[in-house]
Amino acid sequence: MVEEAIGGVKVFFTIPNLITLLNLILGFIAILVVKVSSLLCMEIIILAMIVDALDGFVARIIKQASEIGRELDSLADIVSFGVAPAILVLSVAGETTLSIVLAIIYTCCGALRLARFNVYGAKTKEFFEGLPIPAAAFFVSTTVVAFGFPISYIALAIAAPAMISPILYPTAKTKRGLKCVLIIVIIAVVVYMALIITNLIKLSYETLAISGFASLLAIFGWCYGILGPIVMHIMKRL
């Protein structure tokens, strides 16, 4: 009896899967450029986040969501949002024992977070259980560029356990979650302005466009990572 292939090649090359592969490619490029420019690495990671959101949206629109697509998405995410931010921290902080251990723990927690999401995450769209790995990557990479060492260590130490925690985070896919995210954006802007006024964030004219924007993004990442569950809890009770 001649056995036949079950899936074949055609199951790979759908439009959503190609977009997911672009996410993977961007993660790979982010790792390659980390020694050249930490800012460019951060920008590519953020671009990968946009692409990551796009593949699921396109899959739902054209009705090509699949199990292979979901697994492929996780494989791409662990590179773009697990390995790439960890390598970015090592490039800035140096390859010390502490930085390597923190980077490994962060990457492992990201993998565990993705595995849990694949099994249980599809059962609810009302919230995220644990800090989503793209949000963790945003949190870590923007902190590295804006504040450098040693605050990047703290970002890793917070993001890693937050990803595998049972803490609930708001998702912009729901109206209530979107309101929570908008509130967090407002809080981040207020905190950012307060830090500038008090001169805790010092911006020179030459680096204002770069460091200022990176600092604002980093503060939003911190606000979402720390205040996100609190804001969501308050919104639920209103």
What does this structure look like?
- This protein has a two-stranded antiparallel sheet with strand order 1-2.
- It contains 8 helices and 2 strands.
- With 238 residues, the protein is an all-alpha fold.
- The chain has one domain: CDP-alcohol phosphotransferase transmembrane (TM) domain (Four Helix Bundle (Hemerythrin (Met), subunit A), Up-down Bundle).
- The model is unreliable at 204-210 (pLDDT under 50).
Supply database-style keywords:
single chain, globular, 8 helices, 238 residues, mainly alpha, two-stranded antiparallel ribbon, Four Helix Bundle (Hemerythrin (Met), subunit A)
Question: How are the secondary structure elements laid out?
Answer:
Elements: H1 15-33, H2 38-62, H3 67-93, H4 97-120, E1 128-129, H5 133-147, H6 151-164, E2 168-169, H7 175-197, H8 208-237
- The CATH class designation is Mainly Alpha
Radius of gyration: 19 Å
Strand tally is 2
Q: Please state the overall shape, judged from the principal axes of the Cα atoms.
A: globular
CATH architecture descriptor: Up-down Bundle
**What class do helices, strands and sheet pairing give?**
mainly alpha
Q: Strand-residue fraction?
A: under 5%
Oligomer: single chain
Largest sheet strand order: 1-2
Please tally the helical runs, counting DSSP H or I stretches of 4 or more residues: 8
Task: Write a brief structural summary.
The protein has helices at 15-33, 38-62, 67-93, 97-120, 133-147, 151-164, 175-197, 208-237, and strands at 128-129, 168-169.
